[in-house]
Amino acid sequence: MKSRPDDALNLDSETMEKLRKKGVSRRDFLKFCSAMAASLALPSSFIPQIAEAVANKKPYLVWLEFQDCAGDSEALLRASKPTVGQIVLDILSVEYHETIMAPSGHRAEKSLNDVVKNHKGKYLVVVEGSIPLKDDGIYCCIGGKSALAIAEEVCGNAAATIAVGTCATYGGIPAANPNPTGAVGLKEAVPGATVINLPGCPVNVENLTACIVHYLTFGSLPDTDRLGRPLFAYGKRIHDNCERRAHFDAGQFTQQWGDEGHRQGWCLYEMGCKGPETFHNCPTVKYNEGTSWPVQAGHGCMGCSEPNFWDTMSPFYKRLPNVPGVSVEKTADKVGAALAAVTAAGLVIHGIGRAISPQKNDDE
Ligand code: SF4
Question: Helix axis angle, 13-22 relative to 84-91, nearest 10°?
Fold first, then answer.
């Protein structure tokens, strides 16, 4: 008989007792570990290793917040059933997070300094928000220090840093033209730090959890693309996993908000959807415990997980220029044939990328 993943999950009594005290049942724990293995594209044979790491390791973590809207902290705190967020908070020792920590002022700063001093090279950092470099970084200061000075000290001495949200990864909205504060992402501000990027507005907390679980299990961060994003979460285009893709291929497009096509769930490309240009696992993981994501809710993708999206993806309600397979060919056969030809030539991704340019009016 074929063995099931939970057959291999022999948790010892000490681990079971720890889970019981946290109010986590064996069943929920197994579901969580299975989901993490699936998120990380690992075979189920890794589930016991993940379970062992998650149940028994409790690394120190500090969460830094710079030029941001706190949307990523909100995303973390709103994770609920099946208690992914609770498990993260239970398996981590969160020593510093300005928004949720009890101490304030000097006591809060002491918590941060103690971690850096006493656990050098062993703690994890999550950074939310961009870092201003202009005028010696005076546009974002905490406890008398600039965001840059804090990031250099805290991230520079960490085991690893996870930049969450598009502001922390690429500068985001604070870095949009004309970028008055000289905002940049963490990797640019502190090039010597070990950083992985989880862009998105906000970050998807399940991807954050998976990154932490990967680190706990293997002692390293997941493999990334050239933009520093983990391949398990950013390896595929939104367009390739979108539930409206069949309508795109069939040439069925929403032409106006609320029209018949919109009500029927047709493709949002003509309404400005940036899914053909954006890499993220939104269509498969979704948000709010897998409830929905923008395209499912009827709004096009805004490309928020790509660098400089505020400048390069706007106007948000104007369609992308020159995406192969649409606009010229209007029959389903022609659209499908054109897409197949372009895909076979390996030009879909890179061709679309080149099609994005500041001259956005040539598609009207
Ligand atoms: Fe989905 Fe947007 Fe692609 Fe249409 S253009 S299939 S809505 S990602």
Answer: 120
Site to probe by mutation for ligand 1, drawn from 241, 247, 262, 273 as the one with most ligand atoms within 8 Å of Cβ, is 273
Six-digit token string for 254: 């929403």
So where are the chain's domains? Answer: 57-233, 238-359
The third-level CATH classification (topology) of the domain covering 57-233 is Rossmann fold (3.40.50)
Residue 341 banded pLDDT, cuts 50, 70, 90:
very low
Q: Which numbered atom of ligand 1 lies nearest the CA of 245?
A: 6
Taking the model in full, what pTM does it have? 0.84
pLDDT given for residue 87 in this prediction: 55
One-character DSSP codes across 309-356:
HHHHS-STTSPPTT-TTSSS--SHHHHHHHHHHHHHTT-HHHHHHHH-
CA of 115 to the centre of ligand 1 (A): 45
Please state the atom number of ligand 1 nearest to the C-alpha of residue 295: 7
Q: Which residues contact ligand 1 via a Cβ below 6 A?
A: 238-239, 242, 244-245, 248, 267-269, 273, 275-276, 295, 300-301
Other CB atoms within 10 Å distance of the CB of residue 260: 10
- Pick from 266, 241, 239: nearest CA to 252: 266
Taking the domain 238-359, which CATH number applies? 4.10.480.10
Q: Whose CA is nearest to atom 5 of ligand 1?
A: 269
Phi/psi of residue 300, nearest 5 degrees:
-65, 160
Q: Is residue 101's pLDDT more than 60?
A: yes
- The edge-to-edge listing of strands for the beta sheet with 124-128 is 93-97, 60-65, 124-128, 160-164, 195-198
Model confidence over 15-39: pLDDT tens digits? 777 777 777 778 888 888 888 888 8
